[in-house]
Specification:
- The chain is mostly helical.
- It has one domain.
- Helices cover about 75% and strands about 0% of the residues.
- α1 packs parallel to α3 and α6 runs antiparallel to α7.
- About 20% of the residues are buried.
- The mean pLDDT is about 85.
Length: about 160
């Protein structure tokens, strides 16, 4: 878990010189998210769940970074969808919460909102309602960010700044 986090931070920090490190980290993140990936042969189910969610967090960090977003593959979105359809309610719940957390950041690609909409097909009613509320909050937050950006551009232009 700590290795995945450290490698992700290193990749995000290095950017320009991180080609090889990105590939290694990316593969490790993908493997950690895969179901039943026991790296040691002695991990408990709780540890496996924790590592899968850690991998998700790292993948979302890479997706939300504009430099690395271009390297992300459509399969990565499908991998997130498998977490949203996991038999474990706690994995599904934590996954959509992590998605929502990242979507609140205006630099995070709006495409992730489609995954949250997919999560709205959640079998548990309480979770569906929470996802619906989260989506509305995120849309409102993004709308406010756009208004702020537009007002800033208008103010800058009217003050003579390009």
């Amino acid at each position: 878990r700590e290795l995945i986090k450290a490698l992700t931070r290193a990749v995000l920090g290095l950017r320009e010189n991180s080609g090889g490190l990105f590939t290694i980290t990316y593969k490790l993140i993908r493997r950690s998210i895969e179901k039943d990936q026991d790296f040691t042969g002695e991990m408990s189910e709780t540890e496996i769940i924790y590592i899968r969610l850690c991998g998700l967090t790292c993948l979302l960090k890479l997706i939300c970074d504009s430099y690395f977003y271009t390297r992300i593959k459509p399969d990565d979105f499908l991998m997130i969808m498998t977490l949203l359809r996991d038999p474990s309610s706690s994995i599904r719940q934590r996954t959509y919460r992590k998605l929502a957390e990242h979507l609140r950041d205006p630099v995070c690609p709006i495409e992730l909102l489609a995954l949250l909409a997919f999560a709205a097909k959640e079998p548990e009613r309480e979770n569906r309602e929470q996802i619906h509320r989260l989506m509305l909050q995120i849309i409102d937050t993004r709308r406010e960010n756009i208004k702020l950006q537009l007002s800033y551009k208008t103010t800058s232009t009217s003050n003579g700044h390009p």
